[in-house]
Amino acid sequence: AKIVPLYKGKGDDKDPENYRSIAIPPPLAKVFMATMNARLTTTANTLKLHSPTQAGFCAHHTTIE
Fold first, then answer.
1. d(CA 18, CA 13)
2. Which of 18, 21, 29, 30 has the most CB atoms around it within 10 Å of its CB?
3. pTM, to two decimals
4. 4 within 8 A of 21, measured Cβ to Cβ
């Protein structure tokens, strides 16, 4: 991933403490990660690996549930 500094918008723009880093992965890696996420999520749902208390990790559920 390419690391890019991003100015926070506060303070002196010359001070490195006023920046945060953003990681920008290559496009092919993003496609690979999305594919793997979809496959792992489908497998976890099929095998019922999520606990009922982990609603925040399931589609169409929020962390409040």
1. 7
2. 18
3. 0.56
4. yes
